[in-house]
Amino acid sequence: MIALLIRDLRLATRAGGGFGLGVAFFLILSALVPFGVGPDRATLAPVAPGILWVGALLACLLSLDRIFALDHEDGSLDLLATAPLPLEAAVAIKALAHWITTGLPLVVSAPLFGILLQLPVQAMPWLVASLALGTPALSMLGAFGAAITVGLRRGGLLLSLLVLPLYIPTLIFGAEITRRGAEGMATATPLMFLAGITLGVLALIPFAAAAALRVNLR
Amino acid sequence: MTLLTVQDLAVARGGLRTVEGVTFDLEAGQALILRGPNGVGKTTLLRTVAGLQAPVAGRIAMPEDCLAYAAHADGLKPALTAAENLTFWAQVFGGGGTDAALAAMDLTALAHRPAAALSAGQKRRLGLARLLVTGRPLWVLDEPTVSLDAASVARFAEVLGAHLGQGGAALIATHIDLGLPQARVLDLTPFRARPGSAPATRASGFNEAFA
């Protein structure tokens, strides 16, 4: 399992691996919004939590189709399915690798982009906390969508349509945590909900994704 | 020791039966070569034996953790070097002997080249070297000699012979003669599914995903 994680991370950081793509997209979005909406604090600060979260979501979506499609094209998915590693574990590891290469850089760099969007300083810890809690669910749900669309050429659009509705609860509670943090309100309730969603997704989705993969490999 | 028993097996591709009534078994040290015209169902049969799809009818039995499958695609990552590709599969299968496998397929000099820079034949040799590092006794090979030159085919036959000599077994779909004296040949043409032996039309509500 460690071998698969190391291989995926190594592939992501080599040429053409797409590491940093998500952060670059996040940067572009956060840099452009002030131009579109106007740079003053009164207009930007209220929408900042929502924009940051939507940006994180779309950045995550960018690299989803790579999770299984590349392995399917070069035949390694067939070989992985016949390897002693359970397919459920392979799904979980590949989602983890996706999170490390996409979600984790977003979590780390989010405060910087928060500054671009005039997010109040007291909201920064909540932004980081909500992204740290929420993005693992985004990667795992994305792995599920990628498993469903694995055999399709140009399945990226279908993947987005399948996955985005599943992202909505995470988006709602994640943005709510940040908004409440910015206004100095209590954040415990949305934090609990977000954590619950993420834990449920992490526990159940590997099985669903592995089942979808088995069907698609036939 | 019997490594693989196949009884009265029928397999289907796209919901339609390709071959049916196939029965054979493989003891340690034996090789079975599947022949038959294109589309008769050799690949489908091998994928079924490898567990990638369920048989329509019949039984497949083998000891646990004994099979290594090599498909048309080699499963190589172009961005990784030959040695890294092989080491990954060795770790996944809990096997070892990466250097020996590279040497056996004459790839030692290319070990640190990225797989993207290898030729088609070299990639195939690397894909076959993967079988050696799995440590599995039963090899299921789908057209293993595609894009290999004559010398490489002879080298692969040597490796295969050594594997059989060590108590391994192999199930191979191929069109060429590998020069293995101990190999039996099974022609799949007589087992081609006859229309009428199975429902010719799909039942209404047929869905391959839930077949």
Describe this structure in words.
- The complex is a heterodimer of chains A (218) and B (211).
- Chain A contains nine helices and no strands.
- With 218 residues, chain A is mainly α.
- Chain A has one domain (21-217).
- In chain A, α6 (87-116) packs across α9 (188-217).
- The radius of gyration of chain A is 18 Å and the shape is elongated.
- The model of chain A has no long low-confidence stretch (mean pLDDT 90).
- Chain B contains five helices and eight strands.
- Chain B has a five-stranded parallel β-sheet with strand order 5-6-7-3-8, with helices on both faces.
- In chain B, α2 (82-93) packs parallel to α4.
- The longest helix of chain B is centred in the last third of the chain and has 16 residues, at 150-165.
CATH superfamily of the domain at 1-64 and 171-198 in chain B: P-loop containing nucleotide triphosphate hydrolases
CATH topology of the domain at 1-64 and 171-198 in chain B: Rossmann fold
Category from helices, strands and their pairing of chain A: mainly alpha
- The helix count of chain A comes to 9
- Report the helical percentage of chain B: 25-40%
Radius of gyration of chain B: 18 Å
The main β sheet of chain A shows up as: none
- The unreliable regions of chain A are none
Report how far the terminal alpha carbons of chain A are from each other.
24 Å
At the first level of CATH, what is the class of the domain at 1-64 and 171-198 in chain B?
Answer: Alpha Beta
Oligomer: heterodimer
What's the shape of chain B?
A: globular
Average pLDDT figure of chain A: 90
**Helical amount among residues of chain A, as a percent range?**
over 70%
Q: SSE string of chain B, helix = H, strand = E?
A: EEEHEEHHHEHEE
